[in-house]
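step 4 of 6: structure.
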Amino acid sequence: MYDKISSSEGLLSRSSSPSFASEEKLEIPRRRNAQVLPKTTYILIGLLVLSLIANVVVVVVLNAAISKANGLLGDETRNCKSQTKLYSPAQDALEYKVTKFESSIYGGETEYQGPPTEHNNRLWKQTYAHMNTHITEEEAKQLPNKTMPEPPYEGSGYLIVLNVFHDLHCIDSLRLALYYFLDDQWNSTYNPYTLFEHPDDALWAKGGRDLSIMHLDHCIDALRQSTQCNGDITPNVYQWSEKWGEVRAWATVVHECRNFDNIVDWAKSHYSRLPFAFGDGPAVGKCAWDDPWTCLLD
Ligand SMILES: *[C@@H]1O[C@H](CO)[C@@H](O)[C@H](O)[C@H]1NC(C)=O
Ligand SMILES: *[C@@H]1O[C@H](CO)[C@@H](O)[C@H](O)[C@H]1NC(C)=O
């Protein structure tokens, strides 16, 4: 430490002497000060060093406090540049899992695809069956937005829906609507758009609110925001395809995903028995119209 001070002193005095020499003739008062200057320089250097030490101490202490705070917020913030992180009561359910995506096309289809069947309807419904959850008052107080308490009954709390479940409910609505439009009963003159004056009315009346154009339009935009929010930066790749005889883009790569099973487990353990759903969609066990496709299963 002392060595550093004396060496920087040396630098100062060496570099300052030529400039004093050049100013000698121009500024006489400066010359008188020049005798006093070394003393004040020592004091200034001393203060500078003290303030540097103080700065280092402050930075070290602050860094320790910030990393401690990040540790409390969970794994997720470790590699995150942003220091802002909103509270979620399900943050402890977060776990990262490397997952390979399916191509979902040309033989890579999953069980969730194809025209609605009892089997795939059940699979879809299972992904968001526990979307209505409740949390404690203490947890509710930490939310950035307020939420409603449930009516009092044993185990009641404050109602929330984790957004991933709203997204899945939206995708399921879009899936059912897509196939609903492909139904044999529709033709060029007789279809959900022409049945009523307004297309919203047609699908709403036939398929329930969830299948209305208004709801589907809402879903597409909710999914847009969610996808942009989550910003999956996993690189898809280009590789030669023997089958196609050309270089093609591949989506069957590995992603670092939030373990969905863990989130479902959290939802199951916080499930609210209230029959609330988004909008006025069919309750579990009911069909949206006289068609088993849309029956929401337990
Ligand atoms: C949630 O909080 C934001 C920020 O304060 C506010 O703009 C928004 O209206 C709130 N939404 C609800 C539903 O409370
Ligand atoms: C369309 O379907 C309706 C109802 O089944 C039927 O009355 C009508 O003749 C069909 N129109 C055409 C062009 O096939």
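step 5 of 6: annotate
 - The first strand starts at residue 96 and ends at 100.
 - The radius of gyration is 33 Å.
step 6 of 6: archive
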